[in-house]
Design goal:
The protein has helices at 21-53, 69-78, 90-106, 134-155, 159-190, 195-200, 212-225, 237-240, 250-274, 296-318, 324-354, 359-402, 436-448, and strands spanning 114-119, 122-126. By secondary structure, the protein is an all-alpha fold. Among the domains are: 76-283 and 292-322, no CATH class; 324-384. A two-stranded antiparallel sheet has the order 1-2. Helix 3 packs antiparallel against helix 4, helix 5 runs antiparallel to helix 7 (212-225) and helix 7 runs antiparallel to helix 11. The radius of gyration is 34 Å and the shape is globular. Residues 1-10 and 445-449 have low confidence and may be disordered.
Length: 449
């Protein structure tokens, strides 16, 4: 029996299997240090940006301009007293933070930082490793993080963490579907699932321009995937206290905190790789011949990641938290159907271009059909929604007119009577002649006579 050819198995990913072990260990250490430093930076960056949005100063006490505040918080968490609930399952309680943190680090192993450079006399790509299915490694690692959240909620032996863990599992699984479908169009355009191959395919045009729909769906999905506001329903303070990590303290809570921010950095780096050209310089810097050579691409890569992190922070400081039913409705009934129709359109464009159609015809025809499939049902749904709202409003008005009031209400034509004319006060005088009453009586008698 002939072997089955897997997708991408025939592709060659050079430069990763012939490196000395000490150089691989140095790259592992560099990736680890980069993630830790970026986490410390992201925490301070978020607090500073949100403070500026709310007309506050933000952290400004620890270090220059408050830049060491996150390091001080990490040291404080590491040395705090640890409290373990009596009803907790000790083994799973200890394992859950590790299950959340380790996949977050592993996912970054296939993200390219830059082109091939010289390190200690060896030519090596600025990437820990790559596979023909490198993007799926990130996807698999993000899926493993769900287990840590579910296990932490179950092992805590408390109601609110259990509810938070179950809610987070449903949330992350739901939005993983939309996030995975948003990558399919990128694979079709690039012809590979290797992260370095996808960056190479964006030499002349970034994928964000032709695949703007996939980019928007990915950007929305990763916010729900990382449990960030306004999709932080797994740790809603008003409903679940702290969510799945309510019963965690000290270093274990710090590991959950670290995993959340590393996941945010990882999905930002993956968005940079898939849609924003990876480590390639943006225009007009790309006009410089040396912009995409040497160590300069690392700077462009970090700048794009920070820009994407800013969007996360911007959403947190701007939008209120959604209701859970609204959140699930957005994922299952909006993002996934749009994704499926968009994948159909992109596939049709590729098939028509492979059959020799002109580029404009192969693009306009599928997109026109997609617009018809989306716009017409959307208009019909909007008209039906408007008709239902008007009918409900008319029914409410009719019911209000039929109902008899159960309490006294003033009439609609109520007229407030005018105030009476103020009379002159009557004074009783014993001296000085007649009183005012006597004068009134005398005056009346005289007028009568």
């Amino acid at each position: 029996m002939s072997p089955v050819a897997l997708p991408g198995s025939g592709q060659n990913v050079p430069g990763f299997g012939d490196l000395p072990i000490w150089l691989v260990l140095i790259k592992v250490l560099l990736v680890f240090v980069f993630l830790v430093v970026m986490t410390l930076f992201a925490i301070v960056f978020e607090r500073k940006v949100v403070g500026r949005m709310q007309n506050r100063i933000g952290p400004n006490r620890v270090g220059p301009w408050g830049t060491l505040q996150s390091l001080a918080d990490g040291m404080k968490l590491a040395f705090k007293e640890e409290i373990i609930p009596v009803l907790a399952d000790k083994a799973v309680y200890w394992l859950a933070p590790v299950v959340s943190a380790v996949p977050a680090f592993l996912a970054f192993s296939v993200i390219p930082f830059g082109p091939t450079v010289s390190m200690f006399g060896h030519r090596t790509p600025l990437q820990l490793t790559d596979l023909p299915v490198g993007v799926l490694v990130v996807f698999a690692c993000s899926s493993l993080g769900v287990y840590g959240i579910v296990l932490s909620g179950w092992a805590s032996g408390s109601t609110y963490p259990l509810l938070g863990g179950l809610r987070s599992a449903a949330q992350m699984i739901s939005y993983e579907v939309a996030m995975g479908l948003s990558m399919v169009a990128v694979f079709l355009f690039a012809g590979t699932m290797s992260t370095s191959g996808i960056v190479s395919s964006q030499d002349h045009l970034w994928n964000v321009i032709p695949l703007i729909v996939s980019f928007c769906i990915y950007a929305i999905s990763v916010v729900g995937e990382t449990n960030r506001a306004p999709f932080d329903l797994a740790e809603a303070e008003s409903e679940l206290v702290g969510g799945f990590h309510t019963e965690y303290s000290s270093f274990k809570f710090a590991m959950f905190f670290l995993a959340e921010y590393i996941n945010m950095i990882t999905v930002s780096a993956l968005a940079t790789t898939l849609f924003l050209g990876g480590w390639r310089a943006p225009w007009p810097l790309s006009l410089w011949h040396g912009a995409n050579a040497g160590w300069w691409p690392v700077l462009w890569f970090v700048g794009k990641v920070v820009a994407f992190i800013f969007v996360f922070v911007w959403l947190r400081g701007t939008l209120p938290r959604l209701r859970y039913d609204q959140f699930m409705h957005l994922g299952w009934k909006t993002l996934i159907p749009i994704n499926l129709v968009w994948i159909l359109a992109v596939t049709s464009i590729h098939v028509l271009r492979d059959r020799g159609w002109p580029a404009w015809k192969a693009t306009v025809l599928p997109l026109g059909i997609v617009l018809l499939l989306i716009v017409v049902p959307a208009l019909m749904a909007y008209e039906g929604y408007t008709a239902r709202r008007l009918a409900a409003a008319a029914e409410d008005d009719e019911d209000a007119g039929r109902e008899e009031p159960t309490f006294p209400i003033p009439p609609l034509d109520l007229r407030v009577p005018t105030s009476p004319v103020r009379r002159e006060p009557v004074t009783a005088g014993l001296r000085g002649g007649a009183t005012a009453l006597d004068r009134t009586i005398d005056h009346g008698d005289t007028s009568d006579g």
